[in-house]
Amino acid sequence: MNTFIFALALMNSVSTPLGSTAATAPLKATEPVKMTVIATAYTPRPEETDSTPWLTAAGTKTREGIIAANWLPFGTKVKIDGKVYTVEDRMNKRYTAAFPQHIDIVFLSYEKAKKFGRQKIEIEILAEETNPLGIVS
Predict the structure, then answer these.
(1) Residue 106: strand, helix, or coil
(2) Burial per residue of 8-42, b for 16 or more beta-carbon CB atoms within 10 angstroms, e otherwise
(3) Domain total for the chain?
(4) Assessment of whether the complete model's pTM goes beyond 0.85
(5) Is 132 among the domain residues?
């Protein structure tokens, strides 16, 4: 239940209307949160991305160690199978209200991405004191 409430709070923190007087800083977890999500894989190929396949929504270079998630602020660190990933990209809008939550993991190899496919996995959203990219989503 706490995970669900945390996810809803994160979704609300990234959907503040423009021009709102609400705080624009992303919500930061005070302790790690574990939850199960749907994970898919993608590569920076034009067939799988927009017109700028090597550029993330955060303006950084697409590379391994990056995930796309519409419900987490840019710069959020997520641990998956002992490896830390950073949210720097966004998914198609249809995944914004997906439940369970959905993430997309960058692979540079099409074969590795295809092998990963679609899975239900456990992730750990790591507590952060600062937004390392200084970006507000």
Answers:
(1) strand
(2) eebbebbeeeeeeeeeeebbebeeebebebbbbbb
(3) 1
(4) no
(5) no
CATH number at residue 107: 2.40.40.10
User: What domain range is 65 assigned to?
Assistant: 2-125
Six-digit token string for 9: 């709070």
Q: Is 90 left (phi over 0), alpha (psi -120 to 50) or beta?
A: beta
Please give the C-alpha separations between residue 79 and each of 33, 36, 54, 94, 105, in angstroms, as whole numbers.
10, 12, 23, 24, 12
Q: What are the phi and psi torsion angles at 81 (to 5°)?
A: 50, 45
Residue 135 falls inside a structural domain: no
C-alpha–C-alpha distance, residues 69 and 130, integer Å: 19
Q: What single letter denotes the amino acid at residue 79?
A: K
What confidence tens digit (pLDDT) does each residue in 57-104 have? 999 999 999 999 999 999 999 999 999 999 999 998 888 887 889 999
Beta-carbon contacts of residue 112 (< 8 Å; ≥ 6 apart): 41
